[in-house]
Specification:
single chain, alpha+beta, QueA-like, six-stranded antiparallel barrel, 7 helices, 19 strands, 18% helix, globular
Length: 342
């Protein structure tokens, strides 16, 4: 399947540079697969678009403060580390910018007792760095104290309230980027949904920075998708299975939830508790086993995320919806508006 089939022109001014004034006041496009209808709503109207007995599954991961400013010893050259994922205690894979680093390079951080050393790389712009404090592997809290929460590369300026790049239900700091479909929820909206008979379940998927990388291969199938750690626990699996057995729908809040649930689904559609890494690459032709509806943001052209949404909603319908979103001046990407595909 040609990657160019998932391309579209996007005016630069539609890339959202900051969140909506209120989380649930972003716009919400409803796309119905059954008849191809496209409707326009406000996100806080979501309860009217769902049904009693539906289950919303969210990714509860939180973005860690992984952008670190360092100095290369003994030269003092400035280095920026962008942490990607934890490999083991004290050891992180990271992107680098600034002074060139080689295996063995030592790093220090202003005003901190934590030091670091490159133990592998560079390879494709990435290094493996081991952080130490007092001769022992540095704990996550000590590493995170050195950094700031990184924003997506297309957000050009600072955001006044960085907490707006976290979901209101975020818990463990395990992601390098936010599961952005969930950024629209407020505590009040969650209460409204539960009051209308919808339920929530949560899982974890550690979102990586590779989520922003477009597919460069001419044939989509030639792309090697990034792998991400996920965990679907017993409670989440039971909630999904119970919902579907009772005739309710499973609403995946974001593409990360789709990847996790589909990775944990058996051929019979039942979810088993699962934990590990997933390299599931969902493109049109994929048969979904666990997800009945998808809540998502608007994604990059030629991206694996757009391919996943097209696989779920149908390429022609989804690209028609994207053209409509551009005509209607929807806001795109992480801080942008949302789409519900049912």
């Amino acid at each position: 399947m040609k990657t160019g089939l998932f391309d579209y022109p996007l005016p630069r001014e539609l890339i959202a540079q900051e969140p909506a004034p209120e989380r649930d006041m972003s716009r919400l496009m409803h796309v119905a697969r059954a008849n191809g209808a496209i409707e326009h709503h406000i996100f806080r109207e979501l309860p009217a678009l769902l049904s009693d007995g539906d289950l919303l599954v969210v990714n509860s991961s939180r973005v860690f403060p992984g952008r670190l400013a360092a100095r290369k010893d003994p030269t003092g050259g400035a280095v920026e580390l962008l942490l990607l994922e934890k490999v083991e205690d004290g050891a992180w894979r990271a992107l680098t910018r600034g002074a060139k680093l080689k295996t063995g390079a030592a790093l220090s951080f202003e005003g901190a007792d934590v030091t670091a050393r490159v133990i592998e790389g560079p390879a494709e712009g990435k290094v493996l760095v081991r952080f130490s404090e007092g001769g022992e592997p540095a704990q996550d809290g000590a590493v995170f104290a050195l950094g700031d929460v990184p924003l997506p590369p297309y957000v050009e300026g600072p955001v006044p309230d960085i907490e707006r790049y976290q979901t209101v239900y975020s818990e463990r700091e395990i992601s390098a980027a936010a599961p952005t479909a969930g950024l629209h929820f407020t505590e009040r909206l969650i209460d409204d949904l539960e009051g209308a008979g919808m339920r929530f379940a949560s899982l974890e998927l550690a979102v990586g920075m590779d989520t922003f990388v477009p597919v460069r291969e001419e044939q989509a199938e030639d792309h090697r998708i990034h792998s991400e750690w996920f965990e679907v626990g017993e409670e989440c699996a039971a909630s999904v299975n119970e919902t579907r057995a009772q005739g309710g729908r499973v609403i995946a809040v974001g593409t990360t939830v789709v990847r996790a649930l589909e990775s944990a689904a058996g051929q019979d559609g039942r979810i088993r508790p699962a934990s590990g890494r997933t390299s599931l690459f969902i493109v049109p032709g994929y048969e979904f086993r666990a997800v009945d509806a998808l809540l998502t943001n608007f994604h990059f052209p030629r991206s694996t995320l757009l391919m996943l949404v097209c696989a779920f909603g149908g390429r022609e319908l989804i690209l028609e919806a994207y053209r409509t979103a551009i005509d209607e001046r929807y806001r795109f990407y992480s801080f942008g508006d949302a789409m519900l595909v049912t």
